[in-house]
Structure formats: structure tokens, C-alpha cells
Amino acid sequence: MKLQSQLNAAFTTLLLIIMAVTGYVIYSMILDMLIQDEQRQLGQKGDILVDVLNEQYGTRLDLQEFSNFLQDQDLQLFMYDRNQDTVFFSTMSSVVANGFFQSNDFSDENENLWEYQNDKYVTSRIMVYPESTGLELILLTPMNDLQIVQQNFFLRLLVVFLFGGAAAVLLSYFLTNKLVTPLSQLKRQLKKIEKRQFDDIERIKATGEIKEVEQSVYDMAQELQRYMNSQQTFFQNASHELKTPLMTIQGYAEGIKDKIFDEKDEEKGLEVMVSEVKRLKMIINEMILLAKLDSEANAYQPEHIDVSLLIDQVVDRALPLINEKDIVLGSKVDSDINLVADKEKLLRALLNLTFNGIRHAKSQVNIITYRKDRLITIRIEDDGDGIPEELIPHIFHRFVKGKNGETGLGLAIARAIIEQSGGKISVGKSELGGASFEITFTSKLQN
Which residues are paired to 78 by β-bridges? Predict the structure, then answer.
């Protein structure tokens, strides 16, 4: 069953239940209200009759004349003598009056409903003054009359419910159609994503949570397209990076085999082959490492790290390279900064960024670490030529190399490690004039 049909069925079922409960409650309340209203009206009529009795028929001997007066009023009533527990007078026949007297307790003032021959009657009692007379006027109305009014009212209410229910169902169909239509359109867009038709994806007009889902799907499609493009670029770059040393090795190997090199060139060729094999091995090892960083969560072993000691290790391991390049490596670290991450991998990331800065620096590389509020920041900057603007959006992609770059995987590895450690990395222009790589860790990683 489609979602729209399910929603309509659920709404209709709920509406029927609510209408049934409401109808039952109203049906019961109507009868109670009619009984109360009828008792009120009977009480008003009884008060009028008692006033007439008191004004015009002041003595008990005058009650016979009052009885004749009551007989002309077309009322169902009893004149009950409470002192003697007898019916003094009734506008009904003696058989009916006796039947009522036998079936009901006239002395019970709390009984408002009487029964006679399977019929019920609403009663109202009015004392005749003075109370010493012990006379009560008891007026009756058949419940059948009230039930007819109740049924007529309920039939009208049922008609209102039917028309209102039909209008509610139509409105439900319209609203669910408006709700489900964006989902159906979203389903078609997901089919396009499944078929990798990213250029054919269309935006959907929606509101609320559906709009948020639509935006998430659109962002996912953009990310998938970017990922697939980057993967394609990766394989192209990888094949190029691997092909170059292989062709060099193949060329020298065939030349040595065919004896076309003299002894000096042959030795040079072997050195080049060894150098290219080392370069090839380094590229493959970094590709394997990057694949593990992206796919194996258990490759990370988090632990508490003293950032000051970590930066000291970076400086110590970079010392041979800065001496070779005649570069000044400065470090400034605030005290008592700790975070939780895989120490060896985070060290690898910081070394990659530091070595990158040393290769491109003219004379100065700085490592600055500080904590502001609940944010830890590590910034590595140099005074080199900086990163070209067109290269910045792609600098962390695989095999993207700037000037003097090596494998094009170092920055990609650094980003993977930092992001898997819960941090963020960005690149910009440093105050020294070169590139500035800034790493931030949120308070969740603090001690």
C-alpha cells in the first residue's frame, strides 16, 4: 500500500473512532439535558398550579374543584398525600394510577424516573403550601417523547458528521497528496543518483523536514559526484605517478639487457632504477596507508597526548631537514594543552605538514599551538611563495602537488588523520607571506 493510501486510511480510521466516541457522548448527554430541561419545565408548570391552588382553592375542601381544574389542563400528574401515603387525585385513569403506585415508591423524593409497563417517565415534585397539608403535586412526562427529540437531534448531528467527515477526508487527501508528492519526486531523484545521473538531478519544492531531507539528498548527490570525480582523478593521477617510474625502470632495464649502455651509463642507469624503485615503493606505501586511514577505524588507537611533548618530537625529527635546507624552525606552545588522539598518526600528520612547509619555505617555519576558550589550535606556517588560489580547494586531494611537491599524498594523509581524530584542517595565507595550515580540535578532545 502506498504511503498516501496508508495516511488516508489511518486518518479516516482515527476520524471514525473520534466521531463514534463523540456521537456516543453527545447522544448520552442530549438525553440527560432533555431530562433536566423537562424537569425544569414540569417544575415551572407545577409552581404555577400550586400558586393557583393556594390563591383560589385555599382549603382542603376546595380540592375537588381544583381537581376539575387540573383535569382540563391535559397534564399527567398526581396529587399525592405524603402523610397518608396515598394518591389523593390523578388526571389519569384509576387503573393507570394504581399501576404507577404499585410500580414506584411515591415517598422516595430522590427518584426522578418512574417506570410503568416497560415505559419510563420523567417526574417533578412540588410541595403544596403549607407543608403541613402533606400534599405534593407530581407531574410526569413520558420518556418516549424525549427519546424522539433525542433521535431527531442525533440524526441531524449524524448528517453534519457525514458531511464534515467527507470534507475532512477530502482535505486529508489533498494534504497527504501535498505531503507525499515531494517524497515521490525525491524518490525519482534518488533513482537518478542510483544510476549516477548527477547532472539530471532537480531540486524539489518542499517545506519542513521534507525540505531538510531534500537538501541532504542534494548535498549527498553533490558529494557523491565530487567523490566519483576525485576517484577518477585519483586513478588517472595514480596511473600517471606509477607509470612514470615504471617506464624509467623499463627503459634502463631494456637498455642494460640489450648492452646499449657503456659501463658508466649502465651504473648510472642502475642508480636511477634503484631511486625510482624507492620512489615507487614510497608512493605505494603511502597509497596503502591512505586507504587504511579512510577505511579502517581500528587503525586508530586514541590516547591522551601532551601537545607540548608532541611538538618537541616534530621539531626533533625535522632537525636534519631544516639543517640541510638552512631553515629556522620556531615553535611556540601554550602549557597544559592535552588532547585525545592516535599519537603516532597525529605525529605523522604534523610531520607531513612541517616537511611541506620546510620544502617551500625561504628561511622560516613556525609551529604555534594555543588554546582559546575550549578550542585547541595548531598552526604551521612558512614564509614561502604560498599556495596558488586555484590550487587551494584541491590541495588536500590525492596526487595534487604544488611546486617542489613529492608524491602528492602527504597532505591527503594529514587531512585523513586529523579528520579521523575529530579535528579540522584548513589552509590559508600566513603572516609570513607563505602558506598557513591550521588544525583545530574541539573541547570534546580535551582532558
Answer: 90, 138
Q: Does 63 or 445 have the greater pLDDT score?
A: 63
pLDDT of residue 447: 41
Tell whether the model's pLDDT for residue 393 goes beyond 50: yes
d(CA 279, CA 298): 28
Residues 6+ apart with CB under 8 A from 120: 113, 114, 142, 143
Domain at 300-445: CATH architecture: 2-Layer Sandwich (3.30)
3-150: CATH number: 3.30.450.20
pLDDT in tens, 124-151: 888 877 766 778 888 888 888 888 888 8
The arrangement of secondary structure in 208-295, i.e. its CATH architecture, is: Orthogonal Bundle (1.10)
Q: Name residue, grid cell 539530471.
A: 200
How large is the greatest C-alpha to C-alpha distance in the chain, in angstroms?
160
Q: How far apart are CA 294 and CA 231, in angstroms?
A: 13
Query: What is the identity of the amino acid at 80?
Result: Y
Which DSSP string corresponds to 337-358?
Answer: -EEEE-HHHHHHHHHHHHHHHH
- Measured between alpha carbons, how far is 248 from 251 in angstroms, rounded to an integer? 5
Confidence of residue 445 (pLDDT cuts 50, 70, 90): very low
Q: Detail the DSSP E strand segments found in 98-199.
A: 113-116, 119-127, 135-142
Q: Cα–Cα–Cα angle for 138, 140, 142, nearest 5°?
A: 165
355/30 Cα distance (integer angstroms): 89
CATH 3.30.450.20 intervals, the chain: 3-150
Sheet holding 113-116, edge to edge: 86-90, 76-81, 135-142, 119-127, 113-116
- All CATH 1.10.287.130 domain ranges in the chain, comma separated: 208-295
Query: Please, where in the chain does CATH 3.30.565.10 lie?
Result: 300-445
| pLDDT one-digit tens code per residue, 157-167 | 888 888 888 88
Distance (Å, rounded) from C-alpha 33 to C-alpha 29?
6
Whether the CA torsion 172, 177, 183, 184 is positive or negative: it is: positive
- The H or E element that residue 90 is part of is strand 86-90
As a whole number, mean pLDDT of residues 298-318 equals 86
